[in-house]
UniProtKB/TrEMBL annotation:
Protein name: EfeO-type cupredoxin-like domain-containing protein
Alphabetically ordered keywords of this record: Copper, Metal-binding, Signal
PROSITE patterns on file: MULTICOPPER_OXIDASE1 (PS00079)
Gene3D superfamilies in the record: Cupredoxins - blue copper proteins (2.60.40.420)
A family per Pfam: Cupredoxin_1
MF terms (GO), sorted A to Z: metal ion binding
Amino acid sequence: MKHLTLLALLASTSLVHAAGTQAVTVSMSEMMFMPMNLSLKAGQKVTITLKNTGKADHEFQLYAKPKVLPKGETAWDAYMEKNSIWLASRDTSLKIAGKAVTGKFIEVALKPGQSATLSFTPARAGTFEMACHEPGHYEGGMKGAVTVK
Ligand SMILES: [Cu+2]
């Protein structure tokens, strides 16, 4: 009887945990994300499953939408380092093809057929942009709006 009670307690705890996590899958292919727009909740952990379903290398970056676009790769990198949504989160974790990535990163770069799991907690509400900054991809339309409420 005691055993059953414990099991019931464990089951309800994991349900609460599941409800507290947002899960999203984003596919990347030539010059697009699927879906093109995401809506996330501030203060609630999100797990994004990323898949490169295209034929080229793609990157996933997520940062506060710039009012004025940085010019050049160095300027973009500096901007993203200051405005990355997951660098502002304390519980960020990333696995690419099942392997944990440690340290600071501003992009998730995937080869064709690779997938990754990215988790973090959006700290604040706002308008963000997800994008791929492989040469020509952003300009080709590989970007989407991410709203955090
Ligand atoms: Cu791309």
